[in-house]
Amino acid sequence: MALTRLGLNQSINLASNVTGTLATGNGGTGATSFAPGKILQTVTSTITNSTESTTSASFVASSLQLNITPSATSSKILIFVIGGQAYVDANAERMHTTIYRDSTNLGDSSRGLANYSTNSAKPSVPHSMLVEDSPSSTSQINYRCYYDSDGGGSVYWGTGSMGKMTMTALEIGAWQI
Description:
The chain is an all-beta fold. It contains 1 helix and 11 strands.
């Protein structure tokens, strides 16, 4: 590749006049082209005015769920849950929450993806979970929120007076470098 020295007020069209690969030693990737992932579809589910509770130490299904059918086995699914409220009464130590793909827990088998603890103020806090999944399937998939009680007391899942809670799944096409 030939090098050109530019003067003070000279310019070059980078889109059409520069080719080649920036070496990895100079901060490049060594790649000559990229095919970045794109959002292929979005599915959203929302609940309002819903409160559920349990004293179970095993995960129980909530009413917040959605179905998505990936368009390719190489797609990734990004799932996030936001809003509503988590409340842990004084007799429970904490609430664990997680997201299942069909019958598979996408979080830790006993602690899930998020934990909410009690304290003397007993606050209600919004739910917040985010997980990336690689289902390797083009069949319909069900994603559902689950929760449990750690400590034997009651835990409350849902929206209560906190408006609405939303679960969103984004299908992201695979990318390669």
